[in-house]
């Protein structure tokens, strides 16, 4: 049932005239439809009234308290767990677009860059997603079109440089055929309306009369409805969620693993977006509230698991003095679970000889595994941390998986 006062998207039949028909075969041209159903009017929401059930407000308050607890854990944890959660969140967001990569390949690409085996496949795109979320943590005034364009540029500049940092100038749709939107699940509004709709969305995001999680859920749904880019809308929209979390002072970083929890409810996620476009924002607000609470709980649990790996699994295997290089490397591995000698010397300020000896000691203890990352390039990985990152990115933690 649509919420009173909340506008839905208006859809009608429109003539369909595809571009570049000369590139199509005769059979393809004859099968093209003459019309399509397009979201002709996406309403402004900056001043719309959002009416929600009383029980949902209570759920929003409970979820908000869990997020505050999660952010407090970041400050009190003896280990820096932000980086692993950030990578897992970026990976989960990308998985929702069917872009998958192991945590090992993701960290290799992030640390060692292009030209390495980790550069193949989806790793560069997911690293770009991580960098877009890192931008969020440095953003001072995020609620403007320029920041949205900048996030999109970071996400897409390597894989699709021709569209980066630009609002689309062509029709886009979800589902159906690549040739036409005839059987599409959703057809985005005319590209000429995008700049004004984004301005209105930014005005909505500046509102102070709504609970933060409700505003975030609606803003995300509206962004997906506008679909302002030719590609990368889903990942940009989920990165925008972290802008709003930080802007609401709920998270100090972009590490709340919200996409991780949404990944376990993909069908509900898309159903909620469909309901929103019909004029009912309650399902998407309820889904985001539930997933935000679960994400905060998962984040706290993940921090505890990292401490358990460091203190319960690794510490008994170490025999060196408290300030030894191998112990410092163990601390480094909890946030950077793939290293080489250069990584260790840069982070610890030690010599290459000291780094090699310490890594060899950790290898003998079974804490790291040595392998070749490239020709004459040796690296060491911490399987325990990488396995935890993979579990989190798939929407589960060790406690849930066990």
UniProtKB/TrEMBL annotation:
InterPro entries: Fido, Fido-like_dom_sf, Fido_containing, WH_DNA-bd_sf. ATP binds at residues 231-238. It comes from the Bacteria. Keywords: ATP-binding, Nucleotide-binding. It comes from Corynebacterium meridianum. Pfam families: Fic. The keyword Endoplasmic reticulum does not apply. The active site is at residue 227. Residues 143-290 form the Fido domain. GO terms for molecular function: ATP binding. This is Fic family protein. The keyword ATP-binding applies.
């Amino acid at each position: 049932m649509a919420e009173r006062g909340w506008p839905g998207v208006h859809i009608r039949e429109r003539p369909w005239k595809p571009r570049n028909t000369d590139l199509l075969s005769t059979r393809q041209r004859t099968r093209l439809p003459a019309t399509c159903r397009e979201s002709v009017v996406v309403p402004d929401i900056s001043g719309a009234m959002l009416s929600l059930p009383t029980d949902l407000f209570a759920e929003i308050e409970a979820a908000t308290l869990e997020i505050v607890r999660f952010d407090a854990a970041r400050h009190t944890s003896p280990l820096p767990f932000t980086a692993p959660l950030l990578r897992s969140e970026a990976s989960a967001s990308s998985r929702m677009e069917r872009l998958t990569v192991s945590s090992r390949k993701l960290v290799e690409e992030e640390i060692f860059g292009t030209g390495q085996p980790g550069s193949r496949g989806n790793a560069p795109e997911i690293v770009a997603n991580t960098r877009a979320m890192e931008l969020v943590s440095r953003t001072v005034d995020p609620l403007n079109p320029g920041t949205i364009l900048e996030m999109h540029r970071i996400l897409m500049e390597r894989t699709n440089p021709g569209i980066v940092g630009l609002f689309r100038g062509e029709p886009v749709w979800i589902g159906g055929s690549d040739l036409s939107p005839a059987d599409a699940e959703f057809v985005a509004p005319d590209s000429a309306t995008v700049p004004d709709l984004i301005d209105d969305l930014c005005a909505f995001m500046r509102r102070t009369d709504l609970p933060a999680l409700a505003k975030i859920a609606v803003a995300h749904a509206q962004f997906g409805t506008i679909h302002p880019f030719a590609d990368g809308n889903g990942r940009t929209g989920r990165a925008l969620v972290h802008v709003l979390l930080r802007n609401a002072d709920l998270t100090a970083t972009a590490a709340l693993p919200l996409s991780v929890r949404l990944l376990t409810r993909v069908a509900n996620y898309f159903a909620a977006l469909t309901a929103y476009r019909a004029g009912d924002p309650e399902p998407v607000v309820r889904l985001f509230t539930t997933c935000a609470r679960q994400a905060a709980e998962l984040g706290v649990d993940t921090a505890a698991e990292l401490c358990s790996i460091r203190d319960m699994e690794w510490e008994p295997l170490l025999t060196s003095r408290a300030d030894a290089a191998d112990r410092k490397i163990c601390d480094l591995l909890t946030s950077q679970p793939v290293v080489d000698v250069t990584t260790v010397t840069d982070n610890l300020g030690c010599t290459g000889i000291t780094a090699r000896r310490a890594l060899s000691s950790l290898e003998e203890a079974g804490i790291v595994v040595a392998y070749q990352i490239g020709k004459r390039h040796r690296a060491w990985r911490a399987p325990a941390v990488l396995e935890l990152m993979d579990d989190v990115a798939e929407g589960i933690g060790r406690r849930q998986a066990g």
